[in-house]
Amino acid sequence: MAEKLFTDKEKKSIVDAIKAAEMETSGEIQVHLESHCKGNVLDRAADVFEKLKMHKTKLRNGVLFYLAVEDHKFAILGDKGINAVVPEDFWDSIKEEMIKNFKEKKFAQGLIRGIELSGKELKEHFPYDEDSDENELSDEISFG
């Protein structure tokens, strides 16, 4: 089910949003979809974060958008480098923006909005450095 949430065009738009955000920041953004999430969504997102080796970025500035499609659960998880510099309610405010779209069944738009908002904040704290930046993690959507 998770693989069918987005059309091919929507998947491309999401990946394009990730690439655009990462052109402005050294931060790394990933999207992971699963059909089900047993238990706490933040715990599962933390497991996925580790499996995707997101904690291995040089500046610890990875962001995971985790969605459990069938269970209607999602989480945004930032690594400790980001959490040390963003406002305390930062992830909650992005989630609220995304939920507005999700309630209207606009899942791709909600996700893209979350990616854009994250990218803006990452740009402020982790600007892109043409000489030293490299794409440390895949921009493609992963599925569990």
Automatic annotation (TrEMBL):
Q: Which Gene3D superfamilies match?
A: 3.10.310.50
InterPro entries according to UniProt: TPM_dom (IPR007621)
Source organism superkingdom? Bacteria
* Alphabetized Pfam families for the sequence: TPM_phosphatase
- Domain annotation TPM: ranges: 3-116
User: Which PANTHER family does this entry report, sorted A to Z?
Assistant: BLL7265 PROTEIN (PTHR30373:SF8), UPF0603 PROTEIN YGCG (PTHR30373)
The name under which this protein is listed is TPM domain-containing protein
